[in-house]
Design a protein that fits this description.
Elements (H helix, E strand, L loop, with lengths): L3 E3 L3 E3 L2 E10 L10 E2 L2 E11 L4 E13 L5 E3 L4 E9 L1 H4 L4 H6 L7 E2 L1 E5 L6 E5 L2 E10 L2 E6 L8 E3 L4 E8 L11 E4 L5 E4 L14 E6 L5 E2 L21 E5 L2 E8 L2 E9 L8 E9 H4 L14 H4 L2 E4 L5 E4 L10 H7 L24 H4 L7 E2 L4 E2 L15 H5 L12 E3 L11 E5 L4 E6 L6 E16 L12 E10 L8 E6 L7 E9 L5 E4 L8
Length: about 525
């Protein structure tokens, strides 16, 4: 089932905060008794049939994982399969099924689920009825899942539409000291999801990586150039300080064992107390708020406090439960922890706009440096964004000549490529920005040949919860590395696409805007002419 829930927008200094709650279910199904290399997950089954008012058959599964050395790791709770048969007429009103449930209190047919650690804390079980798997869980603090580039025009906006769009292809094998390859087995279904492999036609598929995709994520957009708080002069120029970052704050990775070594993994979101489905906690905010203001080592961040504090989500039973806020990833997060432990975590008390929940500009360097056009220096804490007149293909490792080609060489390192006006062309697609009309269109990369190219970026984040057999295999304790790879085009036959509106209140503005693609996040980047009529 696909579910998308958007919390009400919260306005702070005119800025809308989008909290995108994306329902996901992740369970890698393994039948009981199936071996994991040298290890085996088994269940001990017992069946009882009740009598009296209700006649029901209960099958109980008690789980044990036996590792490569023959050591048994037991799990504390059993799963059950309940089969309703019949009930007494004395309480059911004629033995109707509804009467059995409401009058006699009989349990309906179904299976129970257990998600729990083994009693020794070494393995994690995910089981429903008689099917389950064991894994070691890692909870990286965050994952950058998209960068949305600010378009020109003081009333323009750019974001995901109602189609499916690839985000980025990610692997993390370099987090560990072992050399075995990790095969990606299952991603996160529905809105933010992982495909099983890249499968590009010009290369072999990469079974170690997973590709995140966005679908029907219509509230993920950037319109900060149209916001007088961030653009008080109503400039039409491209401002990369207003590029938006989509940050996933509760990722979880399950590593499946093959004896003493890993064999595969799956991705998902961490469990939120009181919510039966797994929900991705994704916030979207502009670079400017995470940069040092004033620029330099003495500057402070200006993140709206609503982003920093725990994010409320409605309980199925009423009231609220809470997912992480951005303050959770900060090094000095004692104020955040006090805020999270307070009676109303989503009402600022310990955290405020002034104290930034203890966060510093240095906490966000890794996020900001995923955007080359922002050109952020993590040592001096200063941004030197490229002009909107700069062709993005020149801001690449392989350079403008190589990255401006079509097709791009598979050995090239091109973070940005042109979106060709037609197949085989090296002329970028362009759209008008004019004061006399609004131009709304869906931009796709359907004319781009699908291929994997040579570049990638890697960044380290903290691991907020780690346990299990592979914890000691981390190369750096409490550190997790995401590695995002470049690719162009689509492996599925469906082009990546986004909704773009180019609009300005400047009556004299009239220019064509060239369109490029970010090969990591598959979002679109804009370039304006050097001599233009749009200030």
């Amino acid at each position: 089932m696909k579910t998308m829930q958007s919390l009400p927008s919260v306005s702070e200094s005119g800025k809308k905060c989008y909290w995108i709650l994306l329902a996901m279910v992740v369970l890698v199904g393994v039948s009981s008794g199936q071996t994991g290399g040298a290890g085996t997950l088994t269940d001990s089954t017992s069946t009882t049939t009740t009598s009296g008012y209700c006649t029901e058959k209960y099958t109980s599964n008690t789980w044990t994982y036996t590792d490569a050395l023959g050591e048994a790791h037991k799990f504390p709770n059993a799963t059950e399969n309940i089969v309703f048969e019949t009930c007494s007429s004395s309480c059911s009103g004629g033995r109707s099924k509804e009467g059995c449930f409401t009058g006699c209190g009989c349990a309906p047919t179904g299976e129970t689920t257990q998600d729990e650690w083994s009693t020794d804390g070494q393995y994690y079980l995910q089981a429903t009825g008689g099917n389950g798997t064991v894994s070691t869980l890692f909870d990286p603090q965050y994952k950058v899942v998209s960068v949305l580039y600010s378009p020109p025009g003081n009333e323009s906006y750019n974001g995901f539409g109602d189609s499916t769009t690839n985000s980025t292809t990610t692997s993390y094998g370099q987090s560990f000291s072992f050399s075995e390859e990790l095969t990606f087995t299952e991603g996160v279904p529905n809105i933010l999801q992982g495909s099983e492999s890249m499968g590009f036609t010009t290369t072999t598929s990469n079974s170690q990586a997973f590709t995140q995709t966005w679908g029907d994520a219509t509230s993920v957009a950037t319109n900060d150039n149209a916001n007088t708080t961030y653009n008080p002069a109503k400039s039409d120029a491209i401002n990369h300080n207003l590029d938006e970052f989509a940050i996933w704050l509760n990722p979880r990775v399950s590593v499946i064992p093959n004896g003493a070594n890993p064999s595969s993994y799956s991705t998902g979101s961490q469990y939120t107390e009181g919510i039966s489905t797994l929900v991705a906690d994704v916030i979207v905010l502009p670079a400017e708020t995470m940069e040092a203001t004033p620029a330099g080592t003495s500057g402070v961040t200006t993140v709206p406090v609503a982003y920093l504090i725990p994010q409320a989500i409605a309980l199925e039973s009423g009231g609220n439960t809470y997912m992480p806020g951005l303050g959770a990833i900060c090094k000095n997060n004692s104020l955040y922890l006090e805020q999270a432990a307070s009676a109303n975590p989503n009402v600022p008390t310990y955290c405020s706009q002034a104290n930034q929940c203890g966060c510093k500009p240095s906490d966000f360097v890794g996020i900001l440096q995923t955007d080359p056009l922002l050109n952020y220096n993590g040592t001096t804490l200063t941004a030197s964004p490229y002009s909107g007149n700069t062709s993005p293909v020149t801001v690449t490792v392989s350079g403008g000549t190589v990255c401006g080609a079509n097709p791009v060489s598979t050995s090239a390192d091109c973070r940005y490529v042109i979106v060709p006006i037609e197949k085989g062309s090296t002329t970028p697609t362009f759209e008008p920005l004019s004061g006399s009309e609004q131009d709304t269109f869906t931009q796709s990369d359907g004319n781009t040949d699908a291929e994997t190219i040579g570049g990638s970026i890697a960044y380290n984040v903290g691991v907020s919860l780690t346990s299990g057999i592979f914890f000691g295999s981390l190369k750096t304790s409490y550190s997790w590395q995401w590695k995002d790879s470049e690719s162009v085009g689509s492996s599925t036959g469906t082009a990546n696409s986004m909704s773009v509106t180019l609009k300005t209140s400047t009556a004299s503005c009239d220019e064509n805007v060239n369109i490029y693609e970010d090969t990591l996040y598959h979002t679109f980047v804009f370039q304006t002419p050097a001599n233009n009529s749009c200030p």
